Amino acid sequence: MSLNYAEGGFGGSGTNAGLQSPMFTFGLSAPIPVFYQLQGEQRQAEATLDTSTLQHAQITKQVVSDVDTAFAAYIGTQKLVVRMEKGEPDLKVRPILESAKAALDITRIQYEKGAASLSDFLLALQTYIATKVEYFGDLTNYWTAVYQLEETVAMEPHR
User: Fold this and answer.
1) Residues 6+ positions from 19 with CB-CB distance below 8 Å
2) CA-CA distance, 138 to 134, in Å (whole number)?
3) Distance CA 130, CA 123 (A)
4) Contact status, residue 145 vs residue 74, Cβ threshold 8 Å
């Protein structure tokens, strides 16, 4: 809204023209919503909403994938460690560590009594050491998987 007041001066187009009377002017301006209905802003807001929805879906998918991967690694490495430590009781399979140790002990006794050669004893020792190294690798992978799973879900798994 505007309000103006003007007074004095000469009217017309020449210098000898008559005096101009005081004048008041009023003005009013407002946007006409019929022609501009914020379509650009609405489209921009809809595009931002669509982008946010897609980003949310992508992040959710990534989180689910990370949890699945971490859980699968946890379960897989746990099975390897259990097989080494406890065997497979359902299949009546002895633990691998126990079997390797028993084979080494038997071969040692045989070697001491002269029933086995030095190469047999060294082979049994090598097998036992390789089994222990594999066990330590499995154990390392298991605890790495545990920590990755804890980090992914932000809590400790039930053991």
Assistant:
1) 8, 9, 10, 11
2) 6
3) 10
4) yes
**DSSP run (H or E) holding 10:** none
Residue 13 belongs to what H/E stretch?
none
Of 61, 80, 71, residue with least CA distance to 155: 71
The tens digit of pLDDT for each residue in 72-129 reads 999 999 999 999 999 887 777 889 999 999 999 999 999 999 999 999 999 999 999 9
Q: What is the pLDDT of residues 27-59, one digit of tens each?
A: 777 666 666 667 788 889 999 999 999 999 999
Domain boundaries, the chain: 2-49+59-153
Q: Which SS3 state, helix, strand or coil, does residue 9 take?
A: coil
Scanning the structure block, which residue is given the tokens 């990534």?
A: 62
Residue position matching structure tokens 């028993």: 102
What region, left, alpha or beta, does residue 38 occupy, with left being phi > 0 and alpha being psi -120 to 50 degrees?
left
- The span from the CA of 32 to the CA of 36, in Å, is 7
